[in-house]
Design a protein that fits this description.
Number of domains: 2
Strand order of the largest sheet: 1-2
CATH class of the largest domain: Mainly Alpha
Number of strands: 2
Strand content: 5-15%
CATH superfamily of the largest domain: Winged helix-like DNA-binding domain superfamily/Winged helix DNA-binding domain
CATH topology of the largest domain: Arc Repressor Mutant, subunit A
Structural class: mainly alpha
Largest sheet: 2 strands, antiparallel
Shape: elongated
Radius of gyration: 19 Å
């Protein structure tokens, strides 16, 4: 599932903290910080989307990420390749080589490592 830019921003803080509260995330923002109600609403949205779960803690809740950052990143790569490279990872690699983002030697070294 795709997150909005603001949801990704909040999730990045949550991944950094691990278990946390909305106030913990709010404290990581620079001034002017988003209002705590805005952060709490984001937490609820992220929980509804399946990215967070919570448990009671005092008068509030302690939230935990359910989706690992790496897993979300991998799904984003897949969507990117599907959208821009017609579902072909080879077209992506070809583009990286042609635009000199990866050298042919680096690619050959990678293939050698794969064979091991």
């Amino acid at each position: 599932m795709k997150l909005t830019t603001k949801e990704e921003e909040v999730m990045t803080y949550i991944w950094k903290l691990g278990s946390c509260t909305p106030k913990d995330v709010q404290a990581l923002y620079e001034e002017p910080r988003p209002h705590i109600n805005t952060i709490a609403t984001m937490f609820q949205n992220l929980e509804h989307k399946g990215f967070l779960s919570h448990e009671p803690k005092g008068r509030g809740y302690l939230y935990h990420p359910i989706i690992r950052k790496e897993d979300y990143g991998n799904s984003g790569v897949g969507a990117f390749v599907e959208k821009y490279f017609k579902k072909s990872y080879m077209k992506l690699v070809e583009t990286l080589v042609q635009s000199e983002k990866i050298s042919k030697d680096e690619l050959l070294d990678f293939l050698k490592e794969l064979k091991k």
